[in-house]
Amino acid sequence: MSVADKSRKKSGGLGETFSVIVQALLLALVIRTLLFQPFSIPSGSMRPTLLEGDYLFVTKWSYGYSRYSLPFSPNLFSGRIWGGEPQRGDVVVFKFPPNPSIDYIKRVVGLPGDKVQMRGGQLFINDVAVAREKVGQIDNPDITEVSRPVDVYRETLPNGVSYETLDLTPNGIGDDTREFTVPEGHYFMLGDNRDNSADSRFSVGFVPYDHLVGRANIIFFSIAGGASPLEIWKWPSEVRFGRLFDFIR
Fold it and tell me: What Gene Ontology cellular-component terms does the record carry (predicted)?
């Protein structure tokens, strides 16, 4: 084989490798944009449903696509295409309305036209109390983030969606609110950790439909203690194996 042949073979191999890498990156971009997007949980606002160190997949097609479905949120079009309405009780990733560069995750409790209010720690929707019963206490700082027993309630929305909430503080600042009327094209979001959540009662406000990124569906990895998933040597002691591949409700 001549030197020229060897050079062509080498350059051809590099070209093929580059082509494979580009195709893989494009495929990953399509999957992330249109199908699934991974997210990590950075705060305790959705405890006990979601914990810091949970890594989850969000389905992008659940509510259709808006500019915020795309990387860097380019202003290519307004509204949503192939839109689907979120259901009451969905756990949703959305763009923080005052600063859309920030992702938030909360639970949808109020739909367009609803009247939403907290009274004595109980959720009211359209002047009707949402079913709520105390189911016990949790005394596990990894779940509650505090070193004492915490009351746990099971809340059941009018459509039957049921989930647990934490009550860290009796008579908390968010336990009694004014009545909020949800505008058309907007949603009211609450965190399951009711006394430690910046949500629609406070800075988040009403969330526009086009700010929804997707529905949180499954936890694919979870690690405690502030450890990174790359710290493989910590997996035996820090990975929450019981949470792996849990569906989010």
Answer: membrane
CA gyration radius for the chain? 22
106 near 178, Cβ under 8 Å? no
Average pLDDT over residues 82-100: 95
Running DSSP on this structure, what letter comes out for residue 23?
H
**Contacts for 16 with CB less than 8 Å, ≥ 6 apart:** none
Mean pLDDT of the residues in the chain: 90
CA distances from 79 to 64, 71, 173, 210 (A): 10, 16, 34, 6
In whole angstroms, how far apart are CA 232 and each of 39, 50, 239, 241, 243? 19, 22, 9, 14, 17
Alpha-carbon gap, residue 187 to 189, rounded angstroms: 6
Compute φ and ψ for 6, nearest 5 degrees.
-65, -40
Residues with a catalytic annotation lie at 45, 106
Q: How far apart are CA 239 and CA 149, in angstroms?
A: 23
SS3 per residue for 71-105: CCCCCCCCCCECCCCCCCCCEEEEECCCCCCCEEE
The four Cα atoms 92, 38, 242, 225 give a dihedral, to 10 degrees, of -100
- Entry pTM: 0.87
User: What phi and psi values does residue 53 have, to the nearest 5 degrees?
Assistant: 95, -5
Q: Which domains does the chain have, with CATH numbers?
A: 39-247 (2.10.109.10)
